[in-house]
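Protein modeling request. Please complete all fields; requests missing the sequence field cannot be processed.
Requester role: graduate student
Desired output: 3D structure, C-alpha cell encoding
Chains: 1
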Amino acid sequence: MAKTNTALVEPDKLLLDVANYVLDYKVESTLALETVHLDLFDAIGCAFLALRNPECANRIGPLVDGMTAEDGVPIPGTRLKLDPMSAAFNIAMMIRFLDFNDCWFGKEGSHPSDMIGGILAVSDHVSRRHRIARLDPMSMADVLLHIVKAHEIQGRISEFNVFRTHGFDSCTLAEVACAALFTKFLGGDRDQIINAMSNAFVDGPPVRIYRQSPNTGWRKSWSAADAISRAVRVATMAMRGEMGYPNILSAPIFGFSDAYLGGNTFEFPEQFGTEIMEKISFKLWPTEFHCQTALEAAICLNPIALARLDEVEKVEIWSHRYGMNVVDKKGPLTNPADRDHCLQYVVAIGLIHGKLEYAHYEDEAAADPRIDPLREKMVVTEDPKYSAGILSAETRSSSAAIQITFRSGEQTDKVERIYPLGHSTRRLESVSKVGEKFQRNIMGCLDLKAEREIIGLFKDRDALSAMAVDDFMNLLMLKE
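Delivered output (480 residues):
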C-alpha cells in the first residue's frame, strides 16, 4: 500500500476533525442506533420502488453496456454485479431517484441516506476482498455505525454553510463524507483520509440549474449518486499514495472558500456526534420535503374540496421562504421531476385525491383537467414564523397552512401543520408507518423466501447486525 507524504502545510481543521471522528468516535447513542436501523430499510425500500420507474430503470447498469464483474457488488432488485464505483452510483441513485428517502435541513438541505448506497457498495466490495484473503468480512453492525457517521458529517456541515445562494448544489458534502468513510473501509490512516477528503473538495459542487424551474430535470435524482461514486475513486487513489491538498478550504484565491463561497469562511461544528441520525426526518409521501406539511393539510381538506371543486375561488397556502425558493412554481410543468418539486401541484393532488403516489406525477395523471385550474387559484405567502422555524436548531420545523375560499365567500378552517409526519418530533407516530412503507415498497420485487427473510431482518435488529455485508447484499439480488 503506497503512501505519499507531500503536505507542506497543516491540514485545515475540518479535515482533521472529520478524520478523527471517523477513526476514533464510538457511536453509543441508543436513539441513533434505533433510528439508523429504520433508515437503512427505508432507503432500501426506496431503491426497490425506484426500479419500477422507467426513468430510473433506464439509468441502471454498468457504465458500458454488457460489462459486469463476476465477484462484483450486487445491485438490489437486479441480477447485475458491478465494480464498486459503478455500484455506488447505481444504488445511491435508486435510493434517491423518487425523492422519497430521508432528509435533513440546516442552511443547506440534503438527503443523507443517499450515502447508504455508496456505503453498501464499498463495504460489500471490501467484504468480498476479505473473504478471498481469508479475513473476516465487514458486518452489518459496521455498516450501521458508519451510516450514523456519514449522516453526521454531511448534516452537520450543511447546517453551517450555504451553497445555494452561490448557485451551487451541496452534494459535494456527500462526496466528502463518503471519501473519508470509504478510505477507512479500505484500511486507510488519518493522512490518507485527509488526502481523500481534500480531493473530494477539489472536485467541487455542480451548479444547481437542474433543481430550479424552468430547468428542473432528472439530474437532481442522480447528482448525489455521481458525487458518491467519485468518492470511491478518490478513496482508492488515496490508498495508492495520491497526494492531498490539506489547505483546500483556506487557501487564498484557489481554495474552496474563495473559489466557491465568495471568500466566506467555510464553517463547521465544534464537534461531531450523533444528532443528525437521532433527528433525521423520514418521508411518508414521495415529494420534496418542503411540500410535506402542505400536502398533509390538503389531504385533511380533501373531503370538503373534492365535493366543491367547481366553487373554489382561492386556495391560500402559507409556507416558509426556504421552501418557496425551491417549490413555489407557476406555469407549465414539463416532466415528473418538475411536478414533484411544485408545491401547487402537490397540494392540488392532495385536494383532489386525498393521497399522493408517485404515479400522480406521470403524464397521464398530470393530464387531469382539474389540476391546472386549481393551481391557478393558489396564492402562496411566506409566514415569517415558518421561515424562522426551519432554520432554528431548536425547532427544525417545516410548517405550512392551507385555507380554501369559495365563491360564496365561505371559508374552510385554516389547516396548519408545523411538523410533517416522519419528523423526529412525531417519531412514535411514524415508526410503524415507515415499516409499512418499507414492506409495501419491496413487495413483489424478490422471491417470497427472500422477501420474508428481509422483513425478518427489519424486525430483528440483532440478527441484522450480526450478518455479513456480502450475505446481506446477496439477499437483495434477484436469483438466477
